[in-house]
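Quarterly update, task 2.4: guanosine-5'-triphosphate-bound model.
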Amino acid sequence: MSYDYLFKYIIIGDTGVGKSCLLLQFTDKRFQPVHDLTIGVEFGARMVNIEGRPIKLQIWDTAGQESFRSITRSYYRGAAGALLVYDITRRETFNHLASWLEDARQHANPNMTIMLIGNKSDLAHRRAVSREEGEQFAKENGLLFLEASARTAQHVEEAFIKTAARILQKIEEGVYDVSNESSGIKLGYQRGQGAPGARDASVTRNAGCCN
Ligand SMILES: Nc1nc2c(ncn2[C@@H]2O[C@H](COP(=O)(O)OP(=O)(O)OP(=O)(O)O)[C@@H](O)[C@H]2O)c(=O)[nH]1
Ligand SMILES: [Mg+2]
């Protein structure tokens, strides 16, 4: 299917916070109650429509376990957006956010758009991190923020779509330099330009960096 832009995302955060479930809910509208530990990296994709523009999201779901951290790091580069996820019922997953951001600062494009997600909002009775704390952390670090539930699907669409809307806004503001492939943004094949089948050779419009 043709698209105006392709945005690459990564999903990061501690093991068990629900990264794979958020992706599955977004791509397949399903919930997986059993923890299927991600080994290395998994991949998903979906089309979205932002302000009438078709945009393809290509999403890398990384393993949260410490032993996979070096593999995860190799996926930061080339991502335009990141969903940084913690579990509102497990305080330690919130405490580790600073270390995830540190990794992102070292390995990602400096302008990568990051959406902080407090997942498992359906388990409010077991809450260990208040919404205000999540909001505050996001504000201090320049992140977008939502509480969501991969189980009920609350705010799952919004998390992926608001991130895309922010990236699109940055493109329109001219934040990107169009020659850098590592920005995680690709310009879609324009009908009428180039030979049939030339889609893969379409201009890689990258944004000098990154947002
Ligand atoms: N109640 C509830 N459970 C959830 C939610 N999201 C995920 N879970 C559960 O949390 C567990 C871990 O979910 P995963 O998506 O596999 O976690 P992950 O972050 O991908 O973990 P790693 O792959 O090890 O990094 C599973 O048992 C899920 O069913 C949610 O929103 N609400
Ligand atoms: Mg996983």
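Highlight for this quarter: The chain has one domain: 5-199.
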